[in-house]
Specification:
Blueprint lengths: L1 E4 L3 E7 L14 E7 L1 H11 L4 E7 L4 H9 L7 E3 L5 E7 L5 E6 L8 H8 L7 E4 L6 H11 L2 E5 L5 H7 L5 E5 H11 L10 E5 L5 E5 L2 E5 L12 H14 L4 H15 L12 H8 L2
Parallel strand pairs: 1-4, 1-8, 2-6, 4-5, 8-9, 9-10, 10-11
Antiparallel strand pairs: 2-3, 6-7, 11-12, 12-13
Helix pairs in contact: 1-7, 3-4, 7-8, 8-9
């Protein structure tokens, strides 16, 4: 079972020919709205990868539909709390090459209480996985509680904050981050990733695949070919599929390969949580 302490956002997408420069006003040629947030994306990815997942989070009254959507996608939702704070949202600008810039409003995502988190984790069992990102509060309490209960702690270090990683590093079993975040972390700590003492670190490299760093050394995995139209949510999809594979007992190599396949399909789609591929789509696309 995966317990995901994660953000829930209302994503607003704007399609543009190019990213605006400072002071530039640019008309968008398209607009859409959907379910997002790194936490919600990862929960949907876990569910679509055929692993059980319970989401721990908070929304405002106007965001009730996001909880309903997560439930529809197979995510356990009793620990998503409705509070008197607006739901988080993201304004996502996507250019003609599929690259994006994002402005976040955190809202209810950073108003979680220890009692909310503790109530959820009290239902967990030893060997379960606690997944966290850096878009909510409560990571220190959650990781400490998870460690006491015998859960494995997985951390997707985004949006990157070196201080946040430093506060959690001795409790993290699995960390996923991209190449930029990895470089920032090594600069902040003055040490290579292997020296952090984290059992498994996976660095995503976009079109170059990813690398897995463990006490056994470093191994590279090549990406599958894709014609990207929108990179939004691809890293979240990768992380969700990776952890789902581990929860299902597939092993790290097989789980990474499955996550790369999921990420490949994701970058060829516009959207976030609503378009994350399921296992059947991956099997059909790759002829499995």
């Amino acid at each position: 079972m995966i317990w995901n302490l994660g953000s829930i956002n209302i994503d607003k997408f704007y399609g543009v020919t190019h990213h605006p420069a400072g002071g530039e006003t640019l008309a968008a040629h398209s607009f859409s709205e959907g379910l997002g947030g790194k936490g919600a994306n990862m929960s949907v990815a876990v569910a679509r990868a055929a692993a059980p997942v319970s989401h721990i989070g908070a929304i405002g009254r106007e965001g009730r539909w996001t909880r309903d959507r997560l439930l529809e996608y197979g995510v356990d939702t009793p620990h998503i709390h409705e509070i008197d704070v607006p739901t988080g949202h993201a304004n996502i600008v996507v250019d003609a090459e599929g690259e994006n810039t994002i402005v976040l409003f955190q809202g209810a995502n950073v108003r979680l209480t220890e009692s909310m988190i503790g109530a959820a984790l009290s239902e967990a069992s030893a060997g379960d996985i606690l997944l966290m990102q850096n878009e909510t509060n409560g990571q220190e309490y959650a990781s400490h509680t998870a460690q006491k209960l015998g859960l494995r702690v997985a951390y997707a270090a985004a949006p990157f904050d070196a201080d946040a990683v430093a506060r959690l590093v001795d409790r993290i079993d699995i960390m996923v981050l991209n190449a930029i975040e990895a470089a920032q972390l090594e600069e902040a700590t003055g040490a290579p990733l292997l020296a952090l003492g984290i059992r498994d670190v996976v660095v995503t490299l976009g079109a170059d695949g990813c690398k897995w760093i463990s006490d056994q050394g470093e191994r590279a995995f090549e990406a599958y070919p894709a014609q990207p139209v929108d990179t939004t949510g691809a890293g979240d999809t990768f992380t969700g599929y990776l952890l789902a594979g581990l929860d299902r007992g597939l092993g790290m190599e097989v789980s990474i390969d499955l996550a790369l396949k999921a990420g490949t399909l994701m970058v060829m789609r516009h959207g976030t949580a609503d378009v994350i591929p399921d296992l059947k789509e991956i099997q059909d696309h790759f002829g499995l």
